[in-house]
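Annotated sample (chain length 165).
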Amino acid sequence: MSAFLIVSAVQGAAILFDEFFFHHKRGLPKWEVIGHPIDTMTVIACLLFLAFTERTPTTEIIYYVMATISCICVTKDEWVHRKFCSAEEMWLHAVLFMMHPLSLFVAMYEWEDSRAAFVAVAGGVFVFLVYQVVYWGFLAERLRKARVQNSFRKVQQENEGPAPS
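Output written by the structure step:
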């Protein structure tokens, strides 16, 4: 197995834990609902660039620029996260910030040998992008409101007591 796939698997597991444990626990403000898919798209762009571009001195420079932009992009919100996130989530973000450039560097190192892996991982990341947009953009608020309404109904029923016979 390539180093890229190993690093991608570890990074992916950490991102999924962040998503399904921390993000679902605290919810996401609008700026994260918008920002996280942008971060995800920068990763997809880097991987597809490697998959479909021949390695030359010029394309290496382009990739370095793309990877640098991606690394900066994923850290853009961290100064605000301290107001919303637990210490544990902040620690996980620090781990993810170390993994991100590592995975992009390893991908560049394997540029000519792992094109199929880049496409496969980009496909997985794309599925996650669709989830981010659909769940957080359209479903999360509706689900939250439904939970609140169900809780309200339950409290109402408990306060009304048993129906008279």
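Annotation: The mean pLDDT is 94.
Annotation: The first helix runs from residue 3 to 26.
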